[in-house]
Amino acid sequence: MCGIVGAIARENVVPVLLEGLLRLEYRGYDSAGIVVTNGGLHRLRTTERVAELAKLVSNDKTEGFAGIAHTRWATHGVPCERNAHPHFSGNEKKIAVVHNGIIENHETIRQDLQEAGFEFLSDTDTEVIGHLVSKHLATTHDLLDAVFLAVAELRGAYAIAVMDEEQPGRIIVARNGAPLLLGLGENGNYAASDASALLQVTRKMVYLEEGDVAELYHDRYRIRTCDATTKLNSEVTRPVRESDLTREAVELGPYAHFMQKEIFEQPVAVANTLEMVLNAQSISPRLFGSKAEEIFQKTSGILILACGTSYHAGLVAKYWLESISGLPCSVEIASEYRYREPIANPSTLVVGISQSGETADTLAALNYAKLLGHDHSLAICNVPESALIRQADLRFLTRAGPEIGVASTKAFTTQLAVLILLTSVFAKLRNKFPSELEQEMLIGLRHLPVSIQLALQIEPQIKEWARNFSQKRHALFLGRGIHYPIAMEGALKLKEISYIHAEAYAAGELKHGPLALVDKEMPVIAIAPNDVLLEKLKSNLQEVRARGGELYVIADADSNIKESEGVHIIRLAGYSGMFSPMLHTIPLQLLAYHVALQKGTDVDKPRNLAKAVTVE
Ligand code: HGA
Description:
Its main location: cytoplasm. This protein is α/β, with parallel strands linked by helices. The chain has 19 helices and 25 strands. The model has no long low-confidence stretch (mean pLDDT 93). It binds glutamine hydroxamate (HGA).
């Protein structure tokens, strides 16, 4: 989603702004822009990549001591230069604004402002913000006060940065429902949508909270916040945190793409996530927070809320939680849940899963569940200072490290690792987990990183398969039981980065409709672990073969599925029991990656998609 960078310093900030935008490119965008103060507000915008913006800046010799920059992922108004941020408000004084989020009441505000004489030059919802600030500036004469009054009129989600031509020594930023943090440097102060944009200048970060409005000067800053009930604002201090992100973690190193890097980081990412149990003698509820045991004791069911890949992780967990710990579990797409009228049970624990912890629908769904009467929530998330982590009562941080490729890979496997732990904790508390089973689980968890490493070794065979896929327009993914959500995740990966239309089906559903699609042009990928459903799955595969469908089967070493004409088989190491979904997902990630390479698509920044989905 959109990326914001702001900088005000004793030196020219243009290089910092451009480098920051490059670091935020992974979030996905369709246009980019920058404004700096240099005897007035000087703006450049483009619908090309940040590298093109950098060329414009260099040809133009743009420099300045303060500036704001933006990558836009259009929600309101097509991607074009006129709609790219920063937007100006020209009445009275010139105001520049960049925005991440959606202003829901922009139409009414636009109408009022037009009646008051403000002229609109873009189709965006964002443009109302600049005009509102201009309007209030005419009476308050203070930029901070004007921003406060402006944001009070907004409904929806925003992170914004604002500059005023007449007050070039300050930048005002504000957040509500979209991420924004400050960076405190030696030579200046900065703001950005995420920490990776600012590591170039500082590690000292201040994470803004909902309703915060901050004012940045080159040598100081202050934060004021609006009390939700009294609507009065007062100065607050927020903790300064030292970011432990390393530059290597956000750089490509020897890899061609972030997705490739992240696929191959999975053994380490899972080992880091499980660090606290790898040397332990038992699996404790305290892994989920100091209040976890007390809350888990009262938990009678689980409701998982998530989107996209995280939703698939939730679907896998449902099989684990119900079969191993005997706890009823439902899994809902967050954007659906938040707009229906579900029946809440206070003792059902709500589990929100999101890589970024800023997924707008997941955050809203968690809030909604609370309003409906669910007593407690747990966040499973990869970003320590995210809104999800702060919002939930209990938390478990996946320690995957920054995930930059839009197609999620290591976030998924680390989420599954946490969900296995959650299942084990509940199994123990509910007396379903005698100590031999717990010890077996611990041994399995210790082997997991190595098992993932072994699964990655099938890459050369996957490359062969990928050659056959690149000319295809459709693909079917089949799985049964706990591997059905893995088939869904495989189809999602292929769609996301290779733009091949892919659908996943529970294999038993094949003859209820999708079999009609099967012919020699339709490759069918089957997830075929050596579990109790294998024989049933083999019958479903016969049905495909009988209709001329080409089969690509991911089996286990010890399975008795045989290669034959039209049946291609890749074998993982032996059947790995409950860990099997985590291993069977690896070939599917590699397949999507290599098909995308064959097709020459932009693997890390697939068209139309964005990383942290901070708008609904
Ligand atoms: N609504 C604004 C900003 C979009 C956004 O935040 N995307 O992530 C626009 O469409 O310009």
